[in-house]
Amino acid sequence: MLSAADIDRALTRIAHEILESNKGPENLVLLGIPRRGYPLAQRLAAKLAGIEPGFDPEASTGQLDVTMYRDDLRRSTSRTPAPTRLPARGVDGAVVVLVDDVLFSGRTIRAALDALSDIGRPDVVRLGVLVDRGHRELPIRADFVGKNLPTSTAERVQVRLTEIDGPDGTGESAEDGVSIFDRADEPGDAR
Amino acid sequence: MKHLLSTADLSRSDALQILDTAEEMAAVSGREVKKLPALRGRTVVNLFLEDSTRTRISFEAAAKRLSADVINFSAKGSSVSKGESLKDTVQTLEAIGADAIVMRHWGSGAAAQLASSGWITSAVVNAGDGTHEHPTQALLDAFTLRRHLSRRHGSAPHGRDLEGMHVVIVGDILHSRVARSNVWLLTTLGARVTLAAPPTLMPFGVDAWPCEVTYSLDEALATGPDAVMMLRVQAERMKDAFFPSAAEYTRSWGLTDERLAVFESTSAADAIIMHPGPMNRGLEISSAAADSPRNTALEQVTNGVSVRMAVLYLLLSGSAPDSQEATV
Amino acid sequence: MTATEPSHLILGATMPNGTTADVLIQGEVIAAVGTDAADRADEATVRIEAAGRVLLPGLVDLHTHLREPGKEDAETVETGTRAAAMGGFTSVHAMANSTPVADTAGVVEQVWQLGQEAGWCDVHPVGAVTVGLAGEQLAELGAMAQSRAQVRMFSDDGMCVQDPVLMRRALEYVKAFDGFIAQHAQEPKLTAGAQMNEGELSSMLGLAGWPAVAEEAIIARDVLLAQHVGSRLHVCHVSTAGSVEIIRWAKERGIEVTAEATPHHLLLTEELVRTYNPVFKVNPPLRRESDVMALREGLADGTIDTIGTDHAPHTAETKECEWTVAAMGMTGLETALPVVQHALVDTGLMDWAGVARVMSVNPARIARLETQGQMDPDGGLAAGAPAHLALYDPNITRTVDPETHTTKSRNSPYRGMELPGQITDVFYGGHPVVRDRALSAPRQHR
Q1: What is the largest CA-CA distance in chain C?
Q2: Quick one: which residues bind L-aspartate (chain B) (predicted)?
Q3: Could you give the count of Cα atoms lying within 13 Å of C26 in the half-sphere of its Cβ?
Q4: Which of A100, B220, C18, C387 could pair covalently with C25 via S-S, beta carbons 3.0-4.6 A apart?
């Protein structure tokens, strides 16, 4: 549905929108949600630095693990939590942009908001996603969206990023991309 | 994993999952809010039929940091001391709403029996059973060792095992559940383990264990181990002729000031002294060794909470079959 | 026996020596064996088709715990002897560790009387060697011998007669009435707190070990004592290869020692302790595979004389608890013959005549029972002998379900195992106490 070039264009646009809404790069902290949100946050940070040379991507990007805050811990297999890595400045007083690949039910973002509040007190929290596939179950919306993809709940949205799914990652995809599968063909619940 | 009963049946990947999870739990203690909501609404019962304040409060802290409700139940003044059976006791606890039972028991095998009895459906965590096993102690020891190893390599501990480490365990191996759990776990994780003790305190048939055995602590120290773990020795043992006197034990098997000096000169600069506590200063460990900056006893206590958080989290979250990586 | 009791004709049964014959039971005795058995039957004779089944002399157990008096919730003389009958036994020896201990004429007479009243098989009380099994002072052995129970077998079973002087005196004293001492060989200090066989497994499981030497050292001492004073020694439940060797050595020297093995030590090993299921906790403990094999060989070559069940019923609450506090012992009367078939006959180590020797002839001889254990030296059954007989079908296989057992207790270690064979009929003094695989009726009190 989305090619590597589509993804790159979407991220460039989101970078501009972030700067516009924040009126510059001040106090920006990008927090990616594992697994694919983190490389997306890193890419966004690189683009921000390209636009605004004063923006330090290393010092403004991090990863926020939400495993322990999920509301389905009882039902799903125990997951090993991923590390939470914050930029040295922390999140207090920052404009935090949560970054994830797909926005679906909104439950992960709910967990992320809880996790964030246990870490510190940002001034503002925004949400950026590569794909919004609809079917929200909570009153949550994205501020920055790469692409709205209307799907049925019987479908599954697969995002491939070379950092994770490339030959060096776990999959074999050499190129970025977004596809939609019929869930019946793809057993397992990946929302 | 449904229960944690023994390290003998932990695979390398099970063990690494616990240790990796414990790393994330440890990170929480550095945060402003030192609490996770993962076990909100779940009840953990600490059923301690043998005194152990240290282990009990460690499990209590672990459960509370995961937002679980904790009920402490100890034999003193409870119905167990009035002759109620274990079966009736645990069924009562489950009726109260226990999701996990953390049990310290004086009898070897009690936790395994509880898990297989069909009396209850709760998860069972062995917090030490007789002279059999003490798996969370071994896990926290492995966690501590792994952190030191990764510091040496200058990399994150995640995913790493203990390949290349040499650990000497000293003292009353025969009666030690800590030694047993450590031998199985540390060797599963690739460490080299040497047991050093008088022959009377070696288990029968120890030659079949996956470790080296020596009757000379001095020989063991001469090999320059990365860690030396001193086990608590009960002075009463000499009444049963396991050794002639406390003084002779200390001379041959204690980490004395002289042996500390040998250790400091022979082993690597980052080699550590471990002790499961509580220490008998002057018996198995001299005060200088106990207070040495190499002694990780307090670090072990801290790590114990993280490891127990990981165990409770992994046992109590999720029982459904494989679910895929979430990509919400 | 009343004259109204119908006679029974067992048709085409296999004798212990492998030959086939008809056997007529009339009154209390075997009236005829062979071709004239059918001729002498009358209209009223009950006919039992027994082709393919083995007819054995009624089994004799020198090692049964009937628990009465004192622990009637685990077993009574009535329920224990019913279980014995279902297992093919026509004589059992009730061990002395009841409450109160069978250390006086009064207690042994009580147990003997209860056995008489039950009428399922002979019950011979075993007298305690020492008062209260305490190992300190000889019990009144003579009074028990002279009582109506006529005790000849004395044992502190469950406890070892540890004091060598006391053991020597006991061995000597019972010579006065041709008695014998059955020793529970267990050096107490070497086994303080012991929970299972000592070996690599006990070390792994963190259970205090029960070294083989604790059994063997006592047996070695006792055979030398028996030789020195010229007395009869019987060693209960031999469980190690080393013990078998010592007994073999003693017999070669002409020492008057006899020995017993239990069915469970012929089949089960310490590996079962890995489950920490207390049903496998027993004294002496389950040992290693090599010990099991040595015991089987010892029985086959005559070093071990008898199989004793050590039937030890226990209530659920004493087994549904932690291993370290659980009671020691297993039920065994109703599974003994199937286990023996599985371990000794089906493996080719022993024929049915051999089974009859170790489970009937030898124990009867050791206990000086004149009416039990009657078999010709060639393995045939003779007319004129008291009709204590067990008819056994070796051709079926069953899954052991302790819930269906006749004993009051459920602590069978064989639960869920497949074992061969089943007792179909048992004659106790000519009276059918078991008919068609089910309890019939007890023999009338004489």
Answers
A1: 67
A2: 82, 177, 232
A3: 13
A4: C387
In tens, the pLDDT along B235-294 reads: 777 778 899 999 999 999 999 999 999 999 999 999 999 999 889 999 999 999 999 999
CATH of the domain at B40: 3.40.50.1370
Phi, psi of C166 (to 5 degrees): -60, -40
| Chosen from C198, C201, C205 to mutate, greatest number of chain B CBs within 10 A | C205
Could you give the domains of chain C?
57-366 (3.20.20.140)
Domain of B282 in residue numbering reads as 135-296
Are the Cβ atoms of A79 and B318 closer than 8 angstroms?
yes
Closest-CA residue to B101 (of B312, B320, B303, B314): B312
Backbone angles phi and psi of C404, in degrees to 5:
-95, 0
Residue C284: asked if its preceding bond is cis (omega within 30°), the reply is: yes
Question: Is it the case that chain C and chain A have 3 or more CB pairs lying under 8 Å apart?
Answer: no
CA torsion through residues C354, C355, C359, C361, sign: negative
> What are φ and ψ of residue C436, in 5° steps?
50, 50
Regarding whether B199 and B75 lie in a shared domain, the answer is: no
- pTM, rounded to two decimals: 0.91
Q: What Å distances lie between residue C199 and B64, B204, C206, C292, CA to CA? A: 42, 6, 11, 15
Which of C310, C393, C425, C436 is the catalytic position? Answer: C310
Residue A187 lies in a domain: no
Element (H, E) at A111: helix A107-119
**Using alpha carbons only, what angle is made at residue B203 by residues B202 and B207, rounded to the nearest 5 degrees?**
90
Residue B155 lies in a domain: yes
